[in-house]
Amino acid sequence: RRVTFEDVAGLSGVKQELQEVICFLQSPSQFTKFGATVPKGVLLIGPPGTGKTLLARAVAGEAMASFFPISGSDFMELFVGVGASRVRDLFKRARENAPAIIFIDELDSIGRRRGVGYNGGHDEREQTLNQLLAEMDGFEKHNNVILIAATNRPDILDAALLRPGRFDRQVLVDLPTLSERVAILQVHGRNKPFDSDVDLERIARSTPGFSGADLSNLLNESALLAIRRKRQTISNQEISDAADKIMIGLERELVLTESEKRLLACHEAGHATVAAVLPNTDPISKVTIIPRGQSMGVTQQLPERDRHIYDREFMLDRLAVLMGGRAAEELVFKAVTSGAADDLKQATRFARKMVLELGMSNEVGHMSLRSEQETSFLGEDWNVNREYSEQTAQKADEEISRILESAYIRAQEVLVEHQKGLDRIVEALLEREQIFGPEIIKLLGIDRKPIPEEQTSFYC
Q1: What is the C-alpha separation between 102 and 219, in angstroms, rounded?
Q2: Domains plus CATH for the chain?
Q3: Model's pTM, two decimal places?
Q4: Average pLDDT per run of 10 along the chain, which is 460 residues long?
Q5: 268 is an active site residue
Q6: Are 373 and 380 in contact (CB under 8 A)?
Q7: Of 106, 124, 268, 399, which is the active-site residue?
Q8: How far apart are CA 42 and CA 107, in angstroms?
Q9: In the Cβ-directed half-sphere of 57, how many Cα atoms lie within 13 Å?
């Protein structure tokens, strides 16, 4: 079956950009009449799972064109010259079957900047890239062949690929918005039997940051759970359990001593208390001490809306929430444990981003200290000259340490003030192992609007 734009939910702006390619393949004379040329290459840029491959298939389907998909890694072989030969053969077949679309997935595997890496300046990958550039330059104006490629690492592509005349058009295929998530769920849910109270919009609100592939997987896992439980339809419970399975992992049969279980409950209650009390945090969805995947326990927060810009207050409160687990351990047990290892890793990365990239430090100032070349990637130059002095680096390190310490002290202050509520959350977790947002607000005795009951069963 041919894939068309009807199979691609959302992405209206991206579809509009690609419509010109379809029109060119269907009626090239319309463009030649005005002396216009259509881009030889279209580069789809975006995170994994956002529908780049599906879009390329849909363009071919809409234009009734032949489709030649290949992964960039398929060109790479041990023997020199094989990759270049495959590029020549691919373009030859496309011209013979025009109108045609060539789709190269994972372009960064062959299109990385030349002259870097272990093999010097002329390895098999570079020969393959040179042949690809030569083929793109050899496109005739009217041969009705378009090259579409996809990558999630545009920063490492060779500049020769991106110049006008090759990949003229670069289209961002980003994570779906709320309305697009609803549309994606409708597409993937149209052949699935749901309970009457299952609300796809509510699921979409509960899944910010999910890609189209994530949403498809969520509904598929829900269907598999319903089959396993011998149900006739998919209920909210299957969707909730599927979300937990995808995002946290499978439940583990882990035997904890009473003291370990109490420590774990205290740790998660610390996160939940700080998150519920501070004003610039996302609302609590649920807290669990059921071991899943690599996690012993989880505190889940559900954003009230899709967030695109983060202010300094939000990030500082987020750091305090991350420190809440260890602060609770020290407050109640007068000791620190290894349970906060991942929290500290996240907090440190967060603080470094604030200081080095976002200019959110008064001491360091409004500048970005992290160059694009500092991103770690296999094959990049190892020796990158730092663009700031040792004194500035030391000041940045001191500021990162100060921000983290300040977040820890802030978490401690919140927990001391609300220690009775913290203790009540701990006891509730020990009794039932999982509690939801409205109950946490009630146990703390604070005045904050909780997430509605019907939304708390979904992972955020």
Answers
A1: 31
A2: 5-172 (3.40.50.300), 178-248 (1.10.8.60), 258-373+384-444 (1.20.58.760)
A3: 0.79
A4: 86 88 83 78 91 92 92 74 84 89 90 64 72 78 80 88 85 90 92 91 87 93 94 92 86 85 95 94 90 86 82 95 96 91 94 92 85 46 62 92 97 96 96 92 79 41
A5: yes
A6: yes
A7: 268
A8: 12
A9: 14
